[in-house]
């Protein structure tokens, strides 16, 4: 049984990639999502397991949907 670290890594990668594509700093994203910059840093490093509510706020700040932050962009990865 998976312990959840795989999906945390996926969220970390997709949030970082989306933030950079949007041209936002971690601080900018944090302000838009209503969280602390250190929280975004922890998410992007896979150190934070985000709640659904916070995932939705981050997605809104990135002008995307939460489900898109849950899917790896890498081929062959789940």
UniProtKB/TrEMBL annotation:
Single GO term (MF): DNA-binding transcription factor activity
A Gene Ontology cellular-component term: cytosol
Keyword field: DNA-binding
Keyword Cytoplasm applies: no
Gene3D superfamilies, per the entry: lambda repressor-like DNA-binding domains
Keyword DNA-binding attached: yes
Name of the protein described by the UniProt record: Helix-turn-helix transcriptional regulator
Pfam families assigned to the protein according to its UniProt record, in alphabetical order: HTH_3 (PF01381)
Domain HTH cro/C1-type: 15-69
UniProt-listed InterPro entries: Cro/C1-type_HTH, Lambda_DNA-bd_dom_sf, TransReg_Diox_bact_type
Lineage top rank: taxon: Bacteria
